[in-house]
Amino acid sequence: GAGVSQSPSNKVTEKGKDVELRCDPISGHTALYWYRQSLGQGLEFLIYFQGNSAPDKSGLPSDRFSAERTGGSVSTLTIQRTQQEDSAVYLCASKSSGSSYEQYFGPGTRLTVT
Amino acid sequence: QQQVKQSPQSLIVQKGGISIINCAYENTAFDYFPWYQQFPGKGPALLIAIRPDVSEKKEGRFTISFNKSAKQFSLHIMDSQPGDSATYFCAARGGGATNKLIFGTGTLLAVQP
After folding, report:
1. I want to staple A49 with a disulfide (CB 3.0 to 4.6 A). Which of A4, A14, A69, B4 is the partner?
2. Distance from CA of B41 to the nearest CA of A (A)
3. Do residues B2 and B30 touch, judged by C-beta distance below 8 A?
4. Do B106 and A45 lie within an 8 Å CB cutoff?
């Protein structure tokens, strides 16, 4: 079946602009995660959704970052007033509601803030 | 307490050799330790994972060794192949209901033909 998809694959934006990144999880997966991967760094947790609720937003770096999920499916990560330090690859992962801990990752969106 | 420390940062191995990547953690509440493989331009893909009640898990050429008392775990790639050249990340499940993963900083592996 289809895996996790993300769009756009690449986004170049000017400092101060807002951007929206989209994630389509695997159908039926109730859990959805956003991570950020900066150059030469590991993946940094941003936010977790269970259904449409976000019980863990502890990784969002500032109030310029927000995310929502609708219909228990698609999620959008929004970054307002982008800064150069926001440049990174933003990865989305989803997980089924079963006992497996495995997270399936999408290909990511590479964000470049100029 | 939430960190996972990974070494080395980069590794060069000859074809047919053994690649070894090490990780260490502090938080004893971690209960699931996966290794992810990432190729350029792709998202990470689960390679192999272990839970702390097991000291070793093997899948094909890939083996995780887990030392609970030392809070360390490692990935061994036997008979390394050029196609194994990628970035490898260890991770730990952070505990609680969120299932979030805490990642190491990654190891760039190059297998020379």
Report:
1. A69
2. 7
3. no
4. no
Choose among B3, B6, B2: nearest CA to B89. B6
Q: For residue B42, which residues of chain A lie inside 8 Å, CB to CB?
A: 107
Mean pLDDT is lowest, of A16-20, A71-75, B97-101, for: B97-101
Residue bearing tokens 């992810």:
B36
Cα atoms in the Cβ-side hemisphere of radius 13 Å centred on B14: 0
B46 touching A (Cβ < 8 Å): yes
Per-residue pLDDT of B15-54, as tens digits, reads 999 999 999 999 888 999 999 999 998 999 999 999 999 9
Q: What is the DSSP string of B8-76?
A: -SEEEEETTS-EEEEEEE--TT---EEEEEE-TTS--EEEEEE-TT-SEEEETTEEEEEETTTTEEEEE
Q: b/e per residue, B12-27, with b = 16+ CB within 10 A? A: ebeeeeebbbbbbbee
Q: How far apart are CA B14 and CA A54, in angstroms?
A: 46
List chain B residues with CB under 8 Å of A103.
Answer: 46, 99, 101
Q: Which of A42, A48, A106 sits opposite B100 (nearest CB)?
A: A48
Is the N-terminal amide bond of B34 cis, ω within 30° of 0? no
Nearest CB to A42: which of B98, B100, B104?
B104
Give the strand order in the sheet containing A5-7: A5-7, A19-24, A75-79, A65-69
Are the Cβ atoms of B98 and A105 closer than 8 angstroms?
Answer: no
Say whether residue B23 is in contact with chain A using an 8 A CB cutoff: no
